Please model this.
Amino acid sequence: MSPTAVPGDARTPRRADARWVPWVAWFAGLIVVTLLLLLVRARLDKAHVALVFLLVVLGGSAGGGRGLGISLAVAAFLSFNFFFLRPYLTLVVADPLDWLVLAAFLITSVVAAQLLFRATSTTEAAMQRAAEVDRLATLGAETLNLTRPEDALRAILGVIRATLGVTAVTACEVFVQESGGGFVLAARSPGDAPEGRDASHAALGAARAVVSPSAPPPASTDATDAAGLVGWIFRYDRGAVELADGTVRIVDDPAQEAARASRDNELRSLSIPLLVRGETVGVLRVFASRDLVLTYEQARFLDALAYYAALGVERGRLVAEAERAESERRLEALRGALLTAVSHDLRTPLTTIKAIAHEIVEGGPRERARIIEDESDRLDSLVGDLLDLSRIQSGAVHAALEVNTADDLIGAALQRAEVLLRPRRVDIEVPDDDLLTGRFDLTNALRAFVNLIENACRYSPPTSPITIRAERAGGRLRISVLDRGPGVPLEEQDRIFEPFYRPRGTAPDVRGTGLGLSIARGLAMAQGGAVEFEPRQGGGSVFSLLLPAADGGMPFELEAEADALFDA
Amino acid sequence: MSSLTVLVIDDELQIRSALRNALGAPIRLSDVSTPADVAGDGATDATATVRVLEASSGREGIDLAAAEAPALIILDLGLPDTSGLDVCREVRRWSSVPILVLSARHADTEKVALLDAGADDYLTKPFSTIELMARVRAQLRRARTPATRPNDALVLTGDLAIDLRRRRVERAGTLLHLTPTEWLLLRALVTHPSHTMTHQQLFRAVWGSGSGDAQQYLRVYVGHLRRKIEMDPVRPRFIHTEPGVGYRFELAPRTAAPLAVDGLT
Model:
């Protein structure tokens, strides 16, 4: 179909192909009816013929629309005249009264066809509106229910594209303002093909492209770069319709204006300000292909969808704000705990060191220097913990995700915790026939896992056995430390991963900062993993480090190589 | 008793003086942990006195290294003028003297870069004197024996017999089947005993200079190799993991007679 064809055809090619079917059927019907009537013409009155033809016309307009109805009416009129009014087989009408019959028949059929059409289209419009309402209701629920506001926005954009036609709309995007004042792409309709867009759009379309807000307002006749346009819409709360010839129209009701403009111009894009309580919270941009012709109904629907998008953006903003408040609260709590730690946990070993160094200087026993060594180690581990914690809290954990083996992780952890584990029996349960691999950062995973081992050693009787177990758990690797300690009371299970948490009634000689589990969890999460606790059957605790498993082992050619064994 | 020169490059006066004290005692160069099979004829019961040279900047260190030709360089990473990496590269241009690097925690990438640039070993601060001296001794000892064994050598360690010339590996008298990659990996490790090979160095030894998909599976190959040559793959005796850096092959005292390897008696 040529691009200049009637746009309705362009958008619904399949329906256009099937359009001739009712025409053929109904005209064939008309011919059959005429033939049947001819067979019994002698016994028929004019009224019978007129009524039968009227039935055909009404059927045709119901089944094939107004055009078919009127065409059938004219054909029936001719057939009536030609076959059933004397003299037969001419269009001459002998009896002037027959003219009245003919005229009445024609007018009745045309009016009936017209009325039927109107009734049908009203029903269709009502049904379409019902479908719209239905879709809006679903979307509304989705907007409120999807856990991530971006997903809700993406769903809305998907519906916009589906409503306007997937080929007619090349992309839908929502821009929001960042706290810094720049504008970023918050969501894009799913399944967009990025190719075939103009340069300004491509520049803008780059994910999280920051757009300067200080660009000058676009002149209404110039082609304007899209970047300036978004900023402009934010500032003036007005919409814009961009035509293919580069003209940009600044309007208050962009959807309606786009519908008006699309009658005789090719649209490039329309930008709708997303308003919540009169304030622009985002900009919805719809990029059109040459196929896009907007009806007023679609424009109205688009406005409604834009409102949902506005709610989606607003919700995202509120969620982010709540998260910020929460993280600030936690940071504040942490800062307090840090101060306590620095003033107490760091000063205690320092005091000891200072005192003993003084003793030795004054001629005290030199063996006391051993304590200085121990206290230095304690300081070292505390400083290490504090560094780790601050890296985790500031999101500065650099995770180099690589294919690693559980063997490496467990082996290195056993070596690092050797001194702690020496008085105990340690059982290792690693599958013999399966080399467990994961995609994780060995250094960070190791630190997390050593913390779990240290935790188990610290809070279980010094000679009780510890089990280390590695297994595959769905798409993850689960590496667990199982101890026979006292376990964790139910009411404290949520708190054990908080920084500086130490169980109530911890003996004063149990050394530790209360940071181990929180660091372990932070380091695991920084690489898509987790740390979980569960009570152990028969008493004790199971702490598990979960890491993303590597996909199914080695690629094909490497496995093939594995078969090529040496033969001496 | 012979005399050795050790160059310490560190800008912290306190660390320099601690190192000077630690290195003050004479060093026994032969050590029981090295089996005679591998250490070869180079091992003697020599004890050496140590002369410590100190440099407080990278520039000064490079000059001293050139002028005094020390037997070992202990290099701190955080220098005021140049990076430890530059010092290492500069020295490596004209000398193969063992370089022991002192680094802070959380400096894995730096450590790796240094080892790739030719440093021999590293110690993380704070370290104990015992650990320091063990590393110093190991480096001095290794400098006296050739790092790369000739291709026809036979390496006997623990219950393993590795015939580098004939590409055969036996464990407790049983021939092991290794894939070509596993073999190249084992050879690279075994020919640099007690030396941390970075991932990059192992890649190069196994796959050459090209890079490919296979590289990301290096650790998987090590895993498979371990399961063939180690009794307990999570408590390895030979191939030790240096997290974030690479792998190190340690020789173990001989535990099995090389019965099945012919040509050796």
Q: What stands out?
A: Chain B has nine helices and 13 strands. The interface with chain A takes residues 105-106, 108, 126, 128, 166-168, 175, 177-181, 183, 213-214, 216-217, 219-220, 222-224, 226-227, 232-236, 240-241, 243-244 of chain B (CB under 8 Å). The longest strand of chain B covers residues 47-55.
